[in-house]
Sequence to fold (575 residues):
Amino acid sequence: MALAQRLLEIPAVRRSDRLRTFITAAWLGWQIETNWADPLIFIIYFVARPIAALAILVVMYSIIAADSIGTPFFAYVYLGSALYLLTSQIIVGISWVVIEDREQYRVAKQLHTAPIDGYTYLVGRGMARFIVGILSVLVTVPFGVLIFGIPVTLVGIDFPLLIVSTVFGLAAMAALGVMIGAFTMQVSRQVWFIGDSISGALYLLTGAVFPIDLLPDFLRPLSYILPSTYWLELARRALLGDNAIQFQAISALDSGTMLGILIGMSLLLMLASVFVYRWSLRRAKERGVLDMETNF
Amino acid sequence: MAAERVYKATGFTLFWRMMWARAYPRIIGALRERDWIFFETVLPLGTTAAFVFIYRGAGAPPEYTGFAVLGGAMTAFWLNVLWSMASQLYWDKDEGNLELYILSPGPLMAILLGMAIGGIFMATIRAVTIILLASLMFSVSYAISSVPLLFLVFFMTMAALYGMGMMFASLFLTSGREVWHLANLFQEPIYLVSGFYFPVNALGFWVATFASVIPLTLGMDAMRQIIFSNQVGLGFLPVELELLILTILAGLFLFGARLLLTTLENIGRREGRLTERRR
Fold:
């Protein structure tokens, strides 16, 4: 707890209930993710899983056209999939916290009677998965550069664009994660894959691994209203620079416009998540399911 | 007034009743609260559809769409085995059910089989929905060479797969809180080596051979050969041989599950860990 303790002793943090809740929840989440596992299993888990996910794509491509590996299109797919790991970790991480606390650790009653802000707690607990996601991206992108010749170079990366778009892109995903977690408060453990399911749906709609031009016409508008569509495109542009292949409909937008849309969407989602959280909490209390254990 | 005579089940009747008693909450639970059908059948279509579009984007022949759909449907069973079979005894210990199972007069194998039946029920709903919807959406065409053989392969795959899940249940129980990481670890890497979204022989003979210990590897390979019979050179091994290996695996895993369950129950009793929830 050394780092968390130091952060908690910062005067501004000591004065803020929300910051203290956030840091403590993040520390708790990290302990659950790492300290309760054998270090070797944990390292294999966060390295093997993302690499395997990307290897599936590589094998699929190599079966169809072995010479397509290393092309700009392959770089587009590889980076989209690698970055998407971060999105799925955040969405699943935050939404899973509700089920974990309620069904596994059975601390829902204590949490909701403690003087903490539930929304902040959820986001804080999700931070551990966010860090695991960042580590996964830091493993898989260099892996792609070294093994598959993905044209990413340190000097070619547009760091300001990458950082700003990532901050807002991930904030939007965190807001979505909170909304899914809030909804989970109202339902049983039957829906414990809800985060994974929504993450899977976004994998399709955001053009992570294929251009959204390939989507049927009726699905394409859904892509345009999802912030991760813009974040993935911006992050790919920032990482690949001139090597970024641009063939999807949103490519016509310049990076500044796209960043503006992303920031606007993120702020809107964050605001919406506060209302959804409060509404779901009230509904769960009314229905008496806040501490429900389903035991299926 | 004479006391009402209580019927006491023993032997096979007890086993049978215990099995259905454990399957009951899963089957009824799945039907009572139907929210999950949308979240766990319709939404996972997204991942399956993404793999279809990857193939289309890469200009793959149409039958590869069918491979992605079949793989997407079969993930339902693997996820169910990991999270609702292998991890279940750990969850049950954590929730205080395991001690009740042990205190009851029924055999633990019946509990595991009941879990498997309930799990297959839920996973089948998910898998069938994915196959139906995805087949309609992407106009997948099938050339099934033999429906009875397909059902036989599916049945043996499930027997071996859930036998493996029952065996894992005991092993995962010993891993304590690491169970979450173990279950996660067995997702994408297994999708890869078992060839969920592509013919497994693309990984080469030795990888496919080692991966064959996971029943879905051979089961899906056999199903692909039967369902897409117009494709030549698709399979890793002949269907009949794969069926034989699956039968052997089913027997081995069920035997292993029984052995491990007894052994771990004895160790757990001796060390007082069956009701210990802190690890």
Notes: Chain B touches chain A through 52 residues (CB under 8 Å). Chain B has one domain: 12-267. Residues 15 and 107 of chain B are 6 Å apart (CA to CA).
